[in-house]
Amino acid sequence: MVALLWIMRPDDANVAGNVHGGTVLKMIEEAGAIISTRHCNSQNGERCVAALARVERTDFLSPMCIGEVAHVSAEITYTSKHSVEVQVHVMSENILTGTKKLTNKATLWYVPLSLKNVDKVLEVPPVVYSRQEQEEEGRKRYEAQKLERMETKWRNGDIIQPVLNPEPNTVSYSQSSLIHLVGPSDCTLHGFVHGGVTMKLMDEVAGIVAARHCKTNIVTASVDAINFHDKIRKGCVITISGRMTFTSNKSMEIEVLVDADPVVNNFVKRYRAASAFFTYVSLSPEGKSLPVPQLVPETEDEKKRFEEGKGRYLQMKAKRQGQAETQA
């Protein structure tokens, strides 16, 4: 078990005082990286660093505010031959009243990369389970995420293109991009970008898309699985692009794509490094949920993405209803 503490400062939050979803994701990833790297080096053998491969769907259960303390705890729950599953819980604490509340639960997958050659994936020391069912349940989760990762690779050639003079409420009107030069402060000691840094930048772009669309205060409600397709090395220029894919009455789904361009290496072409879907909600100044302007898809691709997003929304809505009925 790893437990970390952070106090939330003004530069961690938006203008309304709500901590950015990307800040929370970065804390989650740091805790996961520490515990998985420790585990992968727990036996004698070639030394390694754990690199983030995937983050499962993460719900933001309660907002965190400036001045609160974030308690982040991480635990290894499953290991395969070449990967580690880490489950992370985030609690926020009001240090004036002592009140604590659960804000996030997340599942992350890491792979150990050799310090001698970061392109080489090493074997993971097995974890000891307290009961056999834990290993069986973990194996099912491992196989499910492995299949989903394969299904996302077909989207890797998709590129978001700018459009001149777009109409309000269209995909083109709110789509946004951020270009970032990867420096030493973004990277591990071994020269590739921390997964938490990438997720924070992805959340920033998704937040810009959501704010442009609804013109109100917005907060991250959830993040669908984030897949890291390839490492991003120091010196790369990364382009983080976001576009609205679906709106319900009170939520917005935004697809975010990360492309890396190794500008100092003529032998490596631009490539897709990560992708994810973020869900945002619109809030009034009092923090109440507001209706979202409905997205107007124009092209056939946009209409197709809208229907796919609607399917994900209905699937998650049915899952939540089923969980509520089970608990009742």
Per-chain topology:
Blueprint: E1 2-7, H1 21-40, E2 48-55, E3 58-60, E4 69-79, E5 84-93, E6 100-114, H2 132-152, H3 171-174, E7 176-181, H4 195-214, E8 217-223, E9 226-228, E10 237-247, E11 252-261, E12 271-283, E13 289-290, H5 300-327
Antiparallel strand pairs: 1-4, 2-6, 2-9, 3-6, 3-8, 4-5, 5-6, 7-10, 8-12, 9-12, 10-11, 11-12, 12-13
Pfam families: 4HBT
EC number: 3.1.2.2
GO molecular function: carboxylic ester hydrolase activity; long-chain fatty acyl-CoA hydrolase activity
> Architecture of the largest domain, CATH level 2?
Roll
CATH domain class of the largest domain: Alpha Beta
CATH superfamily of the largest domain: Hotdog Thioesterase
Mean pLDDT: 91
Region (Disordered): 298-328
Main location: cytoplasm
Keywords: Cytoplasm, Hydrolase, Lipid metabolism, Repeat, Serine esterase
Enzyme class: hydrolase
